[in-house]
């Protein structure tokens, strides 16, 4: 017996919902999403086959509704991020460049994964911040991304999207922390500490080994990757090493944010095996650990200024709160003003 929620979600006219939110024909739409936010069935539980984890829902309902909403003259874009973390893990732990190709899996969610395999969807060439694009002008949008000086800045699809007419951002069940376009605003407005000092090498499919500028935001080593590549960590060492920390924080003077211990100090105290200790010291070189607290960037603080500035609208679709951001020139100006405020986007988390 199907649940009431299954019946309710199946009866939703998603295209009409997007139109109600403010999406129009010929819009250029950058979509960030969480399929699970619609409800349990969207993750593949009820009338969708459980093993496909919502792929049918994405392919048959959500993606067609988005393409229908913008029409043949419009454009749908989704992030296809593979991430800075993977590059540093490969470079620092394995001592070899990461490899990237057009078939490298996106790590940004189920909808993006399905969209990347959709008919006529193409992908930009970039090792950390590529995008999937489908629609009118897709080729022009993705061209030249590999030669952009920064992941989301001048010459990237993010800049081109920001300068196009009728460009809007749709957040499905996620907040502004998931909005990659904000990285473009950081880069064009010169946000302090945004770019890493390091330029890791990447083995690019058909292009050979190249160096790339990457972001230096919150940088966290994935626990599963280190467990696989660096076996033998004690529970105490693992707990310490995986506490959040800022890699090359750099955004504000170090004397304003005093660490309790350096990461190197903790490795020395907690890791006994010499080869593992040497590897970890190399991986965490320059990183700082904060046992009592740490700072994170919190772009959800943009919400109120954008709402009051008339650049944001929200509706509920199923269980998902869906947010449309528009008038991107005004959004950029609001961001610039807030960036000038001392530490506006920093939030302290601690005991």
Could you characterize the architecture of this molecule?
This protein is an alpha+beta fold. The protein has two domains: 4-83 and 98-195 and 298-343, 3-Layer(aba) Sandwich (Rossmann fold); 218-296, no CATH class. Helix content is 34%, strand content 18%. The chain has 14 helices and 15 strands. Strands 4-5-2-1-6-14-13 form a seven-stranded mixed β-sheet, sandwiched between helices. The chain has a three-stranded mixed β-sheet with strand order 3-7-8. A hairpin with a 3-residue loop joins strand 7 and strand 8 (208-211).
Indicate the topology.
Layout: H1 4-10, H2 14-21, E1 28-33, H3 55-70, E2 75-79, H4 84-93, E3 98-100, H5 110-116, E4 122-123, E5 131-135, H6 138-142, H7 157-163, E6 167-172, H8 181-188, E7 201-204, E8 208-211, H9 223-229, H10 235-241, E9 245-246, E10 261-262, H11 263-270, H12 274-283, E11 288-289, E12 293-297, H13 303-308, E13 312-317, E14 320-325, H14 328-340, E15 346-350
Parallel strand pairs: 1-2, 1-6, 3-7
Antiparallel strand pairs: 2-5, 4-5, 6-14, 7-8, 9-11, 10-11, 12-15, 13-14
Helix pairs in contact: 2-3, 3-5, 4-12, 10-11
Rg, nearest Å: 21 Å
Q: What level of helicity do the residues show?
A: 25-40%
Q: How much of the residues is beta strand, in percent? A: 15-25%
Structural class: alpha+beta
The CATH class name of the largest domain reads: Alpha Beta
Characterize the overall form. globular
Which ranges are low-confidence, i.e. pLDDT below 50, for 5 or more consecutive residues? 1-7, 42-51, 218-222, 243-261, 286-294
Total individual domains: 2
Number of helices: 14
Distance between the termini: 47 Å
Element-level helix/strand string: HHEHEHEHEEHHEHEEHHEEHHEEHEEHE
Number of strands: 15
């Amino acid at each position: 017996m199907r649940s009431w929620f299954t019946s309710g979600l199946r009866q939703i006219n998603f295209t009409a919902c997007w139109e109600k939110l403010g999406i129009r024909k010929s819009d250029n739409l950058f979509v960030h999403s969480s399929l699970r936010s619609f409800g349990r069935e969207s993750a593949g539980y009820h009338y969708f086959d459980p093993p496909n984890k919502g792929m049918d829902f994405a392919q048959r309902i959500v993606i067609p509704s988005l393409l229908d909403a913008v029409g043949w003259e419009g454009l749908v874009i989704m992030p296809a991020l593979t991430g800075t973390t993977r590059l540093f893990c490969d470079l620092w732990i394995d001592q070899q460049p990461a490899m990237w190709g057009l078939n490298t899996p996106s790590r940004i969610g189920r909808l993006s994964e399905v969209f990347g395999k959709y008919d006529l969807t193409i992908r930009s060439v970039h090792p950390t911040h590529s995008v999937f694009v489908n629609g009118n002008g897709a080729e022009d949008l993705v061209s030249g991304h590999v030669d952009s000086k920064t992941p989301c800045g001048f010459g990237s699809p993010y800049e081109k999207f920001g300068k196009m007419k009728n460009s809007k951002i749709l957040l499905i069940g996620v907040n502004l922390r998931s909005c990659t376009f904000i990285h473009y605003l950081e880069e064009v407005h010169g946000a302090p500490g945004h770019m890493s000092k390091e330029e890791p090498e990447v083995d690019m499919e058909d292009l050979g080994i190249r160096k790339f500028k990457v972001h230096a935001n919150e940088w966290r080593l994935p626990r599963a990757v280190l467990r696989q590549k660096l076996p033998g960590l004690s529970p105490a060492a693992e707990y310490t090493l995986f506490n959040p920390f800022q890699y090359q924080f750099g955004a504000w003077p170090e004397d304003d944010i005093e660490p309790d211990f350096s990461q190197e100090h903790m490795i020395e105290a907690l890791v006994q095996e010499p080869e593992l200790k040497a590897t970890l010291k190399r991986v965490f070189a320059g990183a700082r650990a904060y046992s009592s607290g740490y700072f994170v960037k919190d772009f959800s603080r943009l919400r109120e200024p954008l709402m009051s500035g008339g650049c944001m609208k929200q509706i509920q679709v199923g269980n998902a709160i869906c947010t449309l951001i528009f008038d991107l020139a005004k959004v950029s100006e609001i961001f610039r003003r807030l960036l000038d405020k001392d530490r506006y986007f920093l939030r302290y988390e601690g005991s």
